[in-house]
Each structure stands twice: as structure tokens, then as C-alpha cells.
Design goal:
Elements lengths: L10 E3 L2 E5 L3 H18 L6 H6 L11 E7 L9 E9 H7 L8 E2 L1 H4 L4 E10 L6 H18 L1 E11 L7 H10 L9 E2 L17 H7 L2 H8 L3 E9 L4 E9 L5 H13 L1
Parallel strand pairs: 6-7
Antiparallel strand pairs: 1-2, 2-3, 3-4, 4-6, 5-8, 7-10, 9-10
Helix pairs in contact: 5-9
Length: 267
């Protein structure tokens, strides 16, 4: 985490706020929250160190910025953390010599993009706070971060629950048939992990039902004009089926630009 750069301060909505983590205790709270959501709630399979510490952590945590949703009614600092999103820019990835998504996808077209890029990942929210307002607050924090760092392209891996491809056939097919990224910025699943997304005839899909069943995070990317990459990836450790997502920030709706640019000016 870049502690010398506090980012954009804090954006507030009632008792909730969104800001960047500022110390090691808050990052520890992030890792504890991720463990509760990913492992305890969603059925991910921990290795021995992860189970012993009850923390979801990896090498990227030390170089990333950690966006937080905090509930001031719970106090301040680590005890207030109720949501998180991990943000990685080029300098952070350069420190490790790799991007997280590169473990599942060929992202060379993205990393070769002429402009600032931002990798999004490890998003989760405490079960008691999974409301539309909390998700909007997270997106507001991302928008503020994008403005501050002049990010032109956002990308990452989004997860569908479970690894049963028959159960997820409609969702995967819908995404591939309707939201495939332009070739110039299209991630492609690595050959040894590639799972075809077109799993049935797109014309036979109940689009309304399929959209309802998509995870809120995936729907959030689509509302921002997001695309998906070519091929899904099964993540058996986390009990998910992953899709690559790409969002060009110039396609973010005027509503988001006007709203958060105004709030930043006021701040």
C-alpha cells in the first residue's frame, strides 16, 4: 500500500464512508474480512497457513492500495472495516513483476494499452452490509481513484459462484454472446485453463432471468459499459468460475462522471 498517498480523502454516505486503508491494522482487517467471506461463507479451500491465521493474504497485498468501506458507527480504524476492493496500478505490479490476473489470463493486450491501467480484485462486503448503497459507495470510491490517477482502463477477474459449468451455462453464454471485449483489449484465458463460455444457443436464453442471477459485481461492471474476455477459468480453491472483465473509463456513464467529479470538487 502506498501510505504516502492518501488518495482522495473520504467520501461519506450517512454512517458509511469509502477511503483507502492507511495502516497495517486496517489491511489486517481487510484480510480477515476476505477470509470470512471467501472461506467461511463461500466455501473456498484454505491451505494450512491461511486456515491457521484466518486471513486471506498474498504478495499483492503489500503493494496494492486497499479501498475500504467503513462504518463509523462501529468506531474508527480496523474495527470499522465492512467492505473492500484491492486496487493495483502499474507501479505496484512492477514491484512484483506481475499482475494478479496474469495467473489466469493473457493480459498482454491490456498491459500494452497506451494509458494508465488499474487492476481491480478481491472485492467483498460483510454480509450485514450487502446493500445497493454499499455497492454504490464502493463504485464511488473507484471512480474517485480513477479520476485522481487518470486511469484509462480498468480490468480484473470477476467470479461466478461454484464450478458447475452446467449450472452456469446461461450466464457464461450470455456474457460471451453480448459483452465480449473488443479484440484490441481482449484478455484470453491461458490455454491450460481455458473454458469455453458459449455453452448453449444464445437465442434460447431467458435474458431477464439470467441478468437477475448474475452477481451484483458483474452487473456493476456491465452497467459501466464493461466487457468480458475470451474464456472462463475454474478456480477450485475459491469454488468459483472466473471471467475477465475490462472497463474503458471513457465508457463510464455520464451520471457517474458528473456525480463524482462534482463531489471531488466540493471536497
Amino acid at each position: 500500500m502506498n501510505q504516502a498517498d492518501p488518495g482522495f480523502g473520504e467520501l461519506r454516505s450517512g454512517n458509511l464512508g469509502v477511503r483507502l486503508a492507511v495502516d497495517a491494522d486496517e489491511i489486517d482487517a481487510v484480510q480477515a474480512l476476505r477470509y470470512r467471506v471467501f472461506y467461511t461463507e463461500m466455501g473456498a479451500h484454505p491451505d494450512a497457513p491461511t486456515a491457521a491465521t484466518q486471513r486471506d493474504r498474498d504478495d499483492f497485498d503489500a503493494v496494492a492500495d486497499h479501498l475500504l468501506v467503513v462504518d463509523h458507527d462501529r468506531g474508527e480504524g480496523a474495527q470499522s472495516v465492512v467492505g473492500t476492493y484491492r486496487l493495483i496500478r502499474r507501479p505496484a505490479a512492477a514491484r512484483l513483476g506481475r499482475w494478479y490476473s496474469a495467473g489466469e489470463y493473457d493480459i498482454s493486450r491490456i498491459t500494452g494499452f497506451d494509458g494508465q491501467v488499474l487492476e481491480l480484485g478481491r472485492s467483498c462486503v460483510d454480509a450485514a452490509y450487502r446493500t445497493r448503497g454499499t455497492l454504490q459507495l464502493l463504485w464511488g470510491g473507484i471512480a474517485a481513484y480513477v479520476f485522481k490517477h487518470e486511469v484509462a482502463l480498468m480490468f480484473g477477474c470477476a467470479s461466478l459462484p461454484g464450478t458447475d459449468l452446467d449450472v452456469l451455462a446461461d450466464e457464461l453464454t450470455y456474457l460471451a454472446a453480448n459483452h465480449m471485449a473488443p479484440e484490441a483489449i481482449r484478455p484470453v484465458a491461458l490455454p491450460d485453463r481455458y473454458v469455453p463460455m458459449l455453452r448453449r444457443d444464445p437465442a434460447g436464453i431467458d435474458v431477464k432471468r439470467t441478468l437477475v442471477s448474475l452477481p451484483p459485481l458483474v452487473k456493476g461492471y456491465l452497467r459501466l459499459g464493461g466487457f468480458v474476455g475470451d474464456g472462463a477459468v475454474l478456480d477450485h480453491q475459491f469454488n468459483t468460475t472466473d471471467v475477465a472483465v475490462v472497463v474503458k473509463t471513457d465508457l463510464v456513464t455520464d451520471k457517474y462522471y458528473r456525480h463524482y467529479e462534482r463531489r471531488l470538487r466540493e471536497a
